[in-house]
Design brief:
By secondary structure, the chain is an all-alpha fold. The mean pLDDT is 90. It is built from eight helices and no strands.
Length: 155
């Protein structure tokens, strides 16, 4: 990871206008290195250079925010990316993940349905179905807790 980050640092120094190098470096920092703060800083720099056309950039930025336990900001980043690319499967999935993690299950189900409908290649199907399973289980658990609490209340 360190060697890859050094190569990205050199590439960014060689061509500071190449925002996509920052996106790739941010993804490596986040996925391989677990360096969410660094990924957030790099994706923020890339957004200063190109906030309009890269759904992947908004995914990385949102993922870094989510990793830093900032779900509202992550949701806003994913939504911003969807404004530019409304059928982007990874953005829809990411937004559904935040919805699941924050207990907004109806939103999660709707977003996963949209992601599956937009996934023409099937590349995201496995991730969508896995997240759907998680969302269904968490929703069922939340309903059980809700029923238990309402049954425990005196009439």
């Amino acid at each position: 990871v360190q060697a890859a980050m050094e190569l990205y640092r050199q590439a960014v120094q060689a061509d500071p206008a190449d925002w996509y190098q920052l996106v790739e470096a941010a993804r490596v920092a986040l996925d391989a290195g677990g360096a969410a703060e660094l990924a957030l800083a790099m994706s923020a720099q890339a957004l200063q250079r190109n906030p309009w056309f890269s759904p992947e950039l908004w995914c990385v930025h949102g993922d870094a925010l989510r990793s830093l336990d900032r779900p509202a900001e992550a949701r806003a980043a994913y939504q911003r990316g969807l404004a530019a690319s409304p059928r982007h499967v990874r953005l829809l999935w990411s937004l559904a993940r935040v919805a699941t993690e924050t207990g907004r299950f109806e939103d999660a189900f709707r977003l996963l349905g949209e992601a599956l409908a937009c996934d023409r290649t099937g590349d995201g199907r496995g991730d969508c179905l896995q997240l759907l399973d998680v969302a269904l289980r968490r929703h069922a658990l939340a309903l059980e807790v809700e029923r238990g609490l309402s049954a425990a209340r005196p009439a």
